[in-house]
Design a protein that fits this description.
The longest helix is centred in the first third of the chain and has 18 residues. The protein has two domains: 221 residues, Acetylglutamate kinase-like (Carbamate kinase), CATH 3.40.1160.10; 118 residues, VC0802-like, CATH 3.30.2130.10. It has 13 helices and 16 strands. The strands form three sheets. An eight-stranded mixed sheet has the order 3-4-2-1-7-9-10-8. Strands 12-13-11-14-16-15 form a six-stranded antiparallel sheet, with no helix packed on it. Strand 3, helix 7 and strand 4 form a beta-alpha-beta unit. With 422 residues, it is an alpha/beta fold. 37% of the residues lie in helices and 23% in strands. It is globular. GO terms for molecular function: aspartate kinase activity; ATP binding. Keywords: Amino-acid biosynthesis, ATP-binding, Kinase, Nucleotide-binding, Transferase.
């Protein structure tokens, strides 16, 4: 049997009926047995489901938001299927389940578990639509629930993979199926030992593709994006971007660590360990070369710019006229770990620790509440974190024009600045 191929299609590649038809054409001459297709939620549906959760936790009415999500998906189906197609009944069932789940009690204590249960519907619904349309077009695929093979702990919203159990399920359940049919499944979701839905972190569908590739001993992974490959900056923000034809695993991992949105940060490590190449290609130009990420790629030195928005700068200052010691840092990091908050930038002074984190609902106030008795805490919200790898220092001032810089630091290979519009 030929090596399994993994294709991953993100939200932009299934954002409407035209996009679903385009995905179908990409697969028309590529689909074969021993292929797994991973799809994300359609367009910005994850954001829309998060908005519902935000309204629910605030005891506000979300019925209009819920109705809009249903209408959005049904409109896509009306443009893709005849009116008597079974997909409409399948979607009715999924939205019935979603609304039943939304009737449950939501509190701060169960927010993360509730989040995973609700937000996973984006992937379940989109994968049903795409699988049914492929079959409707004569491209037969098996729809499979990723939660049956991707096993995790119960760390909701940032679940950790049980690699041994996941591999065993993939080999025993999916491998035999793949001898006869391609499989279409969901990104981003898994399940814990109690069969509760978990998610792998925002934008985690890339990671799903990497998990499945190593568990199925795949030959390659291809991520289909709305860009021509991996670029040295986001073309929507920065002009004159350059595409990498090839990237080494280490260089790609460094880019994702600092927040490059083209690939999820956890994707590279399992692929590098298994020596599985990763291709990033454009669904708008599927015949173009894209970018190949593999072991033996040349090292680059061109500046690579990464911009993370919606950042919070928090400073912890000791209050008893002592200096910052290891114990202070340990205390802060213990709380960050318990709240599942990742530090995007850290700077120490004699009397304070300053760090940059992503904005997440409730997380900042929980952090402040846990540490307010030990530190004097100040923070700024709504910031940007600019990271430049292989910086040319004469170009940094141009990037900073029109911004107030709150914090910056530089090493031999990296420049970072926390900033806001002047």
């Amino acid at each position: 049997m030929a090596k399994t191929l993994i294709y991953k299609f993100g939200g932009a590649s299934v954002k409407d009926s035209t996009a679903v038809r385009n995905l179908t054409e990409i697969l028309r001459n590529r689909l074969r047995n021993s292929m797994v297709i991973v799809v994300s939620a359609m367009g910005k549906i994850t954001n829309s489901l998060e908005e519902i959760l935000s309204l629910k936790i605030s005891n506000k009415d979300f019925s209009e938001n819920s109705a809009k999500i249903k209408d959005f998906h049904f409109q896509i189906c009306k443009e893709l299927f005849p009116e008597n197609h079974t997909v409409f009944a399948q979607l009715d069932n999924l939205f019935f389940q979603l609304n039943k789940d939304l009737e449950r009690t939501l509190t701060r204590e169960n927010y993360d578990e509730f989040y995973d249960r609700i937000v996973s519907f984006g992937e379940l619904i989109s994968s049903k639509i795409v699988a049914e349309f492929l079959c409707h077009q004569g491209l037969i695929v098996l729809w499979q629930d990723a939660r049956e093979v991707i096993h995790t702990n119960s760390d909701f919203r940032f679940a950790k993979i049980d690699w041994a159990k996941t591999r065993k399920s993939c080999q025993s359940i999916w491998k035999p199926m793949l001898e006869n049919f391609p499989i279409l499944t969901q990104g981003f979701i898994g399940s814990d030992d109690k069969k509760r839905t978990t998610t792998l972190g925002r934008e985690g569908s890339d990671f799903t593709a990497a998990i499945l590739s190593t568990s199925l001993d795949a030959g390659s992974v291809t991520i289909w994006k709305d860009v021509p490959g991996v670029l040295n900056a986001d073309p929507k923000i920065f002009p004159n971007t350059k595409k990498f034809e090839e990237l080494g695993y280490r260089e790609a991992a460094e880019m994702t660590y600092f927040g490059a949105s083209v690939i999820h940060p956890k994707t590279i490590k399992p692929l590098a360990n298994a020596g599985i190449p990763l291709f990033v290609k454009s669904f708008l130009d599927p015949e173009a070369s894209g970018t190949k990420i593999h072991e033996n790629a040349p090292v680059h030195s061109i500046p690579t710019i990464v911009l993370k928005r919606d950042q919070i700068l928090v400073s912890f200052k000791v209050t008893d006229f002592t200096f910052i010691e290891e114990q202070h840092i340990h205390t802060i990091y213990e709380q960050l770990k318990s709240l599942k908050l990742r530090v995007n930038m850290l700077q120490l002074s004699a009397i304070s620790v300053s760090l940059v984190i992503d904005s997440q609902l409730f997380k900042l106030e929980n952090l402040l509440d846990k540490l307010k008795d030990q530190f004097e805490i100040r923070y700024n919200e709504g910031l940007e974190l600019l990271t430049v790898l292989h910086p040319r220092m004469d170009e940094i001032s141009t990037l900073q024009e029109g911004y107030e810089v709150l914090l910056e630091q530089a090493t031999r290979n990296t420049f970072q600045a926390v900033r806001r519009k002047s």
